[in-house]
Amino acid sequence: MAPSVKDYYEILGIDKKASQDEIKKAFRKLARKYHPDLNPGDKNSEQKFKELNEAYEVLGDEKKRAEYDQYGRSPFESGGPGFDFRTYTSGDRFDFGGFGDIFGDLFGAGAGHEAFDLKGHDLVMGIELSLEEAFSGITKPIAFNREVSCMECKGTGAETYQQCEKCKGIGKISTSKGFFKMSQHCDSCGGSGKKVTKACKKCGGRGAILHTENITVKIPAGADTGSRVKVRGMGGAGHGNGPSGDLQIEITVKPHPLFTRKGDDLFIDVPVTFGEASLGAKIEVPTIDGVAAMTLPAGTQGGQKFKLSGKGFPSSRTGRKGDQYVNIKISIPKNVPERSRPVIQEIENLYRESPRKGMARK
Question: Is residue 90 part of a domain?
Answer without folding.
Answer: no
